[in-house]
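Workshop exercise sheet. Pairs work together: one partner reads the sequence aloud, the other fills in the structure field after running the prediction. Swap roles for the next sheet.
Pair: D.N. / O.F.
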Amino acid sequence: MKLIAGTSNQPLAKEISEYLGLPLAKTSIRRFNDMEVFVEILENVRGEDTFVIQPTSYPSNDSLMELLITIDTLKRSSARRITAVTPYYGYSRQDRKSSPRSPITAKLVANLITVAGADRVLTMDLHAGQIQGFFDIPLDNLYASPVFIRDIRDTMSVHGKLPEELTIISPDVGGVVRARGLAKRLDAGLAIIDKRRERIGESEVMNIIGDIKDRNCLLVDDIVDSAGTLCNAASAMMNAGAKSVAAYITHGVFSGPAVERIEKSALTNITVTDSIAATPEVEASKKIRQLSVAPLLAEAIARIGQERSVSSLFN
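Structure field:
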């Protein structure tokens, strides 16, 4: 088995390597003056089971091209099997046509990864479950919920029990299944935020479905990007009488003014995974915490390499 680290999240790749007790393969990944990517594998991978650890996060296009070129390099180097380990799957929000003449880029990316030569994909908390059907090769979609549940119990339990007023919040109708599953496993309440804009040009109105008065609320979602909606939701919930509002989000994109918004928001804190490498601004934030998913990904890699089931990791 060989682990190949891309450049988009080397801290995560190193942690996976340490967990497995397997050194990262020697590579040379560099960019020419015109920003073309060049990848060279500096050790023999012929007949090897290879895993390319490369989330396609910012800069998305560069990260994606690097992943594709690395896969192609391994294919041309006679690797026996190539698994693309992309904890964050870029372009996942473009999973359907949003207008008559618009692309389905999540499907295009699936085609590119497959054509490049990947035999399998390992990812986490896809924005839309149907993306799994965009691939004609096996795909394992892990969930961050076991990591979040462990942390919630460790940080919020009193005498071994979670507070009765704990409520899990879905920030939109599309995330209800995720929030319901977490609420069920934590034996917590459930509420939903229904966002709607009555007329073009008017502000978005947030209606809260469920009782959150005097409750400790946890917003759960798969991606936080500019954090505008998340911070507005926290403000609306505090105005509706919530005792506190925190958030657990799998992928921390944190683009533009996201960190500044979070610092000024009603959120007590926001917890994300390290599926995307933290920027210095994120690391310096007093409200943003990062949990490692390296053990979860490493265990999945080990099981795939040993031809064992990974289904138990979905829970």
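Discussion prompt: The mean pLDDT is 94. What would you look at next?
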